[in-house]
TrEMBL record:
It comes from the Bacteria. Signal peptide: none annotated. The keyword Metal-binding applies. It holds the Pfam family Rieske. It comes from Streptomyces nigrescens. Gene3D superfamilies: Rieske [2Fe-2S] iron-sulphur domain. Residues 223-319 form the Rieske domain. The keyword NADP does not apply. This is Rieske domain-containing protein. Keywords: 2Fe-2S, Iron, Iron-sulfur, Membrane, Metal-binding, Transmembrane, Transmembrane helix. The chain crosses the membrane at residues 119-139, 151-169, 181-202.
Length: 326
């Protein structure tokens, strides 16, 4: 298949020059762009990455993490993680405050909409509370570098909430111009927080399902993982299936269960976790998965573990197959 020149264009930094060169696969047009844009982009990304290395934040992170983990949330903690919807709840909840605040900014430009703008500012402040709570419980179960970026993200959003709350008060006192200015500052803070949230989610992979690639890495069909006697009853045993680690558990009744070993939350090793009541508990943050089907019984994981079908041959060979593999 022949790609058009438009889609074969690529760009490289010329070695040692800082100059961005562009070319097309067809050789149709070549040229150079000033490297300043590329350098600015690289500096920007580097400074975002640098947030994850700010060890000075760790003095605050430790006590905060303990405080968030100590909140008496009961089963609501899993709801805030997003367990019932199968993915983190925080990104869904932030739509309301951000949407309200952006709409208020638009209304601030439209004459005669002062009341509506103030209502939207207030709705944004109130709806930011559950969104922030969901974010905090996720944050408390992340890796160090993610928590450092997350803390700066939370600081930006806290500033936005404070500015918007003040904006709501000032608008109520008739100081509309001041209220609008505070709203604009709040929108900048919320935008910065949103940018950091995106960096955290996509570059630092704080929220995605870490078990998602498994069906793409396992070949279709049946694979041998050992013999029944290789698996002591009630113990989690790690096996490799190509690039994919597995956790194999032989139950007291003789039934053998096999799940992907890397936890869907942060890729923790389930084979090093506790086995009890037909479940395995991740040693890193305590997510609990049912051995029979990989369903997650307790968060912070929100996605299930890939569960393999198991066949025991007459000679004791244990074979596994992932139904949607390949
Ligand atoms: S890695 Fe966090 S619960 Fe498993």
């Amino acid at each position: 298949m022949r790609l058009s020149a438009r889609y074969t264009k690529f760009a490289v930094l010329a070695p040692g020059t800082g100059v961005l060169q562009t070319a097309t696969g067809s050789g149709g047009d070549t040229g150079t762009l000033n490297g300043a844009a590329a350098r600015t982009e690289a500096t920007f990304l580097r400074s975002l990455d640098e947030l994850g290395r700010l060890e000075q934040l760790d003095r605050v992170i430790g006590p905060l993490q303990r405080a968030v983990r100590g909140l008496p949330l009961g089963r609501w903690r899993d709801v805030l993680h997003g367990l019932p919807i199968g993915h983190p709840l925080h990104p869904a909840l932030v739509q309301l405050p951000l949407g309200s605040w952006m709409s208020a900014a638009v209304l601030d430009l439209v004459p005669g909409t002062r009341r509506g703008a103030r209502v939207l500012v207030g709705v944004g402040v109130l709806s930011a509370v559950p969104a922030a709570l969901a974010g905090w419980v996720d944050w408390a179960e992340q890796h160090e570098d993610q928590m450092r970026t997350g803390l700066v993200h939370a600081g930006s959003i806290a500033a936005a909430i404070g500015l918007y709350a003040n904006s709501w008060v000032q608008r109520g006192r008739g100081r509309t111009a001041l209220g609008k200015a505070l709203g604009l500052a709040g929108l900048c803070a919320a935008g910065t927080g949103g940018l950091l949230g995106g960096h955290l989610a996509y570059r630092q992979a704080a929220g995605p399902n870490k078990a998602q690639p498994v069906p793409h890495l396992v070949a279709a069909g049946w694979h041998t993982v050992g013999r029944v006697t290789d698996f002591p009853v009630g113990e989690a045993v790690r096996r490799e299936l190509g690039e994919v680690p597995l956790v194999v558990v032989r139950q007291p009744g003789g039934h053998i269960h096999v799940l992907a070993d890397r936890c869907s939350h942060m890729a923790g090793p389930l084979s090093e976790g506790k086995v009890a009541d037909g479940c395995v508990q991740c040693p890193w943050h305590g997510s609990v998965f049912r051995l029979a089907d990989g369903a997650n019984v307790r968060g912070p994981a929100t996605a299930p573990q890939p569960a393999f079908q198991v066949s025991v041959e007459s000679d004791g060979t244990v074979r596994v197959r992932l139904p949607d593999a390949g």
